[in-house]
Q: What sequence folds into this?
């Protein structure tokens, strides 16, 4: 899916002519292992994933924890830094070769001044981001690693074999050995 | 502050005439201890706190955890349920007598169809909610209970003596005795 198709689907519109599209989009490519946003950077772009997978990590005391993965047709960025323009405490890394479209923050803010569809789009997307964060928060508070792994399987099974096991374990907050035990138990 | 003053401040506008205000607002009062939103309810209102304090709790296995407090001039509701219209897993209870203004969900959605300022307001408010949730998530992952208590003191010291100690402890995820130790250490 292209970003424009995604934009139209969010707004429940079949078509937006190019000349009234409220902000510009830039195609970008990242090689597997590339750092898209690094710790301490001030986020200036919002990305739409055409193809690929990224991880979002945060440093928690001595260890690095993975707080999210983003897949095809999803938007991602260091969103808190994008909003408050303070140095980000997350890092975004390409887990596979990635093809993305990037919306520049300045262009988006300019569109927010005047454009009803841009504000609708931004509002709905932020609502979805909020829901995603809530689900994760409740998962951390109320679910076991096994329950969270089953959810990952249900929602993103076709991508999971592209993510190293130790990264999935770090996302679930458990040792890779514990994840192996869970996987063995589930396949038996 | 009234909700209309809050609305104008969010939109950086000095004045919105009553006849172009994009949705209606209803004044409501809740007695201390009243349940504003109960577990399993589908959220249909968005509240602005004129005066008072509420807690937001979630059931985590056998225990109930407090995930947030809301104070004067803040907006609150079971926002995930407000968005997805599924039964909420949080409960909102008045910790003091509360005076609030309520925006009905249907009225807000109708305003979102056509109104640029309503969408701007909704977008900015959701962005703020997202930032609040992020700060809390990072606190849970990366901060000690003592650090989080100091943050509470810094941001809301004037309200804290209205909240029972056991509720603050339940918010920090520690035993009331541990909170007493932290408080003693800080005052010595």
A:
């Amino acid at each position: 899916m292209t970003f424009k198709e995604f934009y139209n689907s969010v707004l429940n519109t079949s078509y937006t002519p190019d000349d009234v599209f409220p902000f510009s989009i830039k195609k970008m490519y990242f090689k597997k292992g590339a750092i898209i946003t690094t710790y301490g950077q001030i986020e200036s772009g919002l990305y739409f994933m055409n193809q690929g997978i990224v991880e979002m990590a945060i440093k928690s005391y001595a260890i690095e924890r993975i707080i999210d993965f983003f897949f095809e047709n999803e938007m991602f960025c260091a969103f808190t830094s994008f909003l408050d323009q303070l140095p980000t405490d997350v890092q975004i890394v390409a887990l596979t070769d990635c093809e993305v479209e990037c919306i520049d923050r300045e262009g988006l803010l300019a569109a927010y001044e005047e454009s009803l569809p841009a504000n609708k789009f931004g509002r709905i997307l932020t609502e979805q981001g909020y829901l995603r964060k809530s689900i994760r928060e409740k998962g951390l508070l109320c679910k076991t690693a096994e329950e969270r792994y089953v959810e990952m399987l249900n929602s993103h099974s076709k991508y999971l074999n592209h993510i190293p096991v130790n990264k999935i374990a770090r996302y679930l907050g458990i040792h890779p050995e514990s994840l192996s035990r869970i996987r063995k138990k589930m396949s038996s």
